[in-house]
From TrEMBL:
This is Carbon-nitrogen hydrolase. It holds the Pfam family CN_hydrolase. InterPro entries: Aliph_Amidase/BUP (IPR050345), C-N_Hydrolase (IPR003010), C-N_Hydrolase_sf (IPR036526), Iso_Racemase_Enz_sf (IPR053714). Keywords: Hydrolase. Residues 172-197 are annotated as: Disordered. SUPFAM superfamilies: Carbon-nitrogen hydrolase (SSF56317).
């Protein structure tokens, strides 16, 4: 029995900046009336439907800007309620885009799904992919798109939702209705609730996205994974706007318009097809203000990727199609039966990496090519290899990474091993990712996860086991590497693990630079002018461990520190006194209270379901949060880091701030660059004048330190003039990279 929904895209033509709101509202009501005459059940208005597309303007006057936003409940606010009231009266569900001034002061580019039968907003979506810029182009002729200036990225994720009351008498709105059909889908994969994927039953499943989101495969797949059947997407898309599109100013405007239109349809058709869903897109189009050309092309596509209805004009227009939701089934049960065919173990990069990390360059020359490294690259390699390593636990896991902007193919790259003394590959990925942007062209960084180490280190016993397992794993790999950096970003006894490891590795690999990341971080903070270095650590446990280590460095009383220079702050100092004296204090960011873990892949946020780890506790690992939860936790993480930083840089008993440089003594579950930016913005206030606050990522510092040491060692060994130049260049490179740490 058919499950059919009649949907419409309500395309809106030119809306000028000078158009009065009531005029635009009237047009929207008329479109609704036309839709009602077509017996439409669900109608989609464009993105930012109530006004012109104001992000193209650089607006500095706050009152003027506020007038483009909808304040309060959009369904009942005086400027907008007429549309919702009319939709309810006509019995048409609507999805409408608007600029949202949220009660807490944040601004979003949003849309809501309004359910006519109940008179309620059923779902809200806030645009996640904000295109364009914060600042306008210098060229006064450029068309701007300042969405990054006016909006916060959405915080509600891509949540599909069911819509009741759409399926008419005789349609199949119940699970029971399809029970007999399951036999036909015997090969289709199961879903957690026992239903058969592709054998969609019940009320229709909708998803929403806004304009630029449609160009990214991720939102579609996230909705696809929820069985979405109709995706709604309003848009404002420029035609000829060379600055925006990165095209030549001399490009043919007509051709540019055609290309923009083509790409819009391409996205709707292709992504709809690969997720076996209908899609509806509604344009705000035409020539705004007599000069801004916006494409039309509102369309409805079916799950096979075909356009089944599309606009014919550049003006207000209603585009209607009947969506027989059973058409989603062939794709879902065969080609795109996700449960049977997806191979998530190879998709790690999608969530662990944002920017591009290119594969290693091949050596140029006569036509024969040599690989610099095996092509087991970057972020996912660690995760993927660990999955393999579960079958063969004695094999260490390597993730090879090279910089993305390699200017020339090095013939003899410096090979650095970054050792994560735990079995947590996501942590390795996070650490390696943080260091990638700082790597010179001729340096290759390999992350090593230790499958036989504990998953995390919460006790001295864990630390000892981690150190022992890591030592043998690292020794297997040292021959292939020029230097080692031991990461120490985990709470508790990891400091000890790192210390023991560093000492043992130095002993076992004489002449090879081995550094503790944390020690390198402190050294870098001091080199950058910090006389009193503040250490930010994850939680009170880590704070205690570090203070313990400090004590050990000063007095040798710590069981983990023999006072012989192996303490994390000892570095080159014989007993560590000088290092310890430079530490202004250790402050906990209290991340354990948020129950966040570090292994978020350089940007993900995880919740630790259970912190009661023990050496024998091979737990299942942290629970991954949904996007809005993760964003909320990330905000809290930044708040806490900044609060702890403020404590450290507050004025101490002597004149001036307690700490004048900071080291991130853990792997933040938000990217280090973001942490640095936030600390800069929030901790140093205008009263601080031109003061600089170095905020050092210890892994980056450790990697840079060993690069310098390897180059120096080469010079000492070679002792040639060329070597001297190389060392000078190396020093410059290290200086350059380190400068990037200062905020
Ligand atoms: N509104 C919106 O998101 N428009 C963008 C224009 C691209 S800006 C380079 C779009 O993706 O259609």
């Amino acid at each position: 029995m058919a499950r059919t929904v009649r949907v419409a895209a309500l395309q809106m033509g030119t809306t000028n900046i000078w158009d009065e709101r009531p005029h635009t509202l009237e047009r929207m009501l008329r479109l609704l009336q036309l839709a009602a005459e077509e017996k439409v059940q669900v109608a989609l208005f464009p993105e930012i439907a109530f006004t012109t597309f104001f992000p193209r303007y650089y607006i500095t006057d706050e009152a003027r800007l506020a007038a483009f936003f909808e304040h309060g409940d959009v369904a009942t606010a005086p400027d907008t309620r007429a549309v919702f009231d009319r939709a309810r009266d006509l019995g048409i569900d609507i999805c409408v885009g608007f600029a949202e001034a949220a009660p807490e002061g944040d601004r979003f580019n949003s849309c809501v799904y309004y359910h006519a039968a109940s008179g309620q907003v059923l779902a809200k979506y806030r645009k996640i992919h904000l295109p364009g810029d914060v600042e306008p182009f210098p060229d006064p002729d450029a068309v701007n798109q300042l969405e990054k200036r006016y909006f916060k990225p959405g915080d509600l994720g891509f949540e599909a939702f069911r819509v009741p009351d759409l399926l008419r008498e005789g349609d199949d709105a119940t699970a029971a209705g399809h029970a007999g059909d399951q036999a036909c889908d015997s090969q289709a994969s199961g879903t957690p609730n026992g239903a058969v994927q592709g054998n969609v039953t019940g009320d229709p499943i909708f998803g929403m996205m806004i304009c630029n989101d449609r160009r990214w495969s991720e939102p579609w797949r996230v909705l696809g994974l929820q069985g979405v059947e109709i995706v709604l997407c309003g848009y404002n898309t420029a035609g000829f706007a060379p600055h925006l599109w990165g095209a030549s100013k001399d490009a043919d405007p007509e051709e540019a318009n055609r290309l923009s239109l083509f790409q819009h349809k391409l996205c709707m058709q292709a992504h709809g097809y690969t997720n076996a869903t209908f899609s509806v897109s509604a344009a705000r189009c035409g020539l705004d203000d007599g000069k801004y050309i916006m494409i039309a092309g509102s369309c409805i596509t079916d799950p096979e990727g075909r356009i089944i209805a599309e606009s014919k004009t550049m003006g207000d227009e209603v585009i209607v199609a009947d969506c027989d939701l059973d058409m989603c089934r062939p794709g879902r049960t065969r080609t795109f039966d996700f449960g049977r065919h997806r191979r998530v173990e190879h998709y790690g990069r999608i969530v662990q990496q944002t920017g591009v990390v290119e594969p290693p360059l091949l050596t140029p020359g006569t036509g024969s090519v040599t690989k610099l490294k095996p092509a087991t690259v970057a972020a996912t390699a660690a995760a993927e290899a660990t999955l393999l390593a579960n079958d063969a636990p004695t094999e260490p896991v390597e993730a090879a990474v090279v910089p993305s902007t390699t200017p020339a193919p090095p013939t003899n790259p410096i090979q650095i091993l970054l050792l994560n003394p735990t079995k947590d590959p996501t942590l390795t990925t996070a650490l390696v990712s943080a260091a990638i942007p700082t790597l010179p062209a001729d340096v290759s960084l390999t992350g090593l996860t230790v499958p036989t180490a504990p998953p995390a280190i919460f006790s001295r016993a864990d630390a000892l086991l981690a150190a022992a397992a890591s030592l043998s794993a690292a020794l297997d790999s040292t021959a292939a590497h020029d230097a080692l950096v031991v990461a120490s970003p985990l709470p508790g006894g990891n400091v000890a693990a790192a210390d023991l490891l560093v000492a043992a590795l130095r002993e076992q690999c004489p002449g090879k630079p081995v550094v503790s990341a944390l020690a390198a971080g402190v050294a870098a903070a001091r080199a950058l002018g910090g006389e009193r270095v503040g250490l930010l650590v994850e939680d009170v446990g880590a704070k205690a461990a570090l203070e313990d280590a400090l004590l050990g460095a000063c007095g040798g009383s710590s069981p983990f520190h023999c006072g012989g220079g192996i303490g994390v702050f000892g570095g080159a100092m014989p007993c560590g006194h000088a290092g310890a004296a430079a530490i202004a204090g250790v402050e906990s960011c209290g991340l354990d209270e948020l129950r966040v873990g570090a292994g978020g892949g350089g940007g993900g946020v995880e919740v630790e379901a259970e912190r009661e780890h023990s050496l024998a506790d091979d737990h299942d690992g942290p629970k991954r949060l949904s996007t809005p939860e993760a964003d909320a936790v990330a905000d809290k993480v930044l708040d806490r880091i900044c609060a702890a930083a403020r404590v450290l840089v507050a004025d101490g008993p002597k004149k001036g701030p307690r700490a004048d440089a900071l080291v991130l003594g853990f792997c933040a579950p938000v990217p280090a660059a973001k942490v640095r930016a936030e600390v800069a913005a929030r901790v140093l206030r205008c009263g601080d004048g031109g003061r600089k606050l170095p905020v050092v990522d210890p892994v980056v510092a450790g990697v840079q330190q060993v690069i310098g040491l390897v180059r120096m060692a080469g010079r000492m060994a070679g002792a040639t003039a060329a070597g001297g130049e190389e060392a000078a260049a190396a020093a410059a490179a290290v200086g350059e990279a380190t400068a990037g740490l200062v905020v």
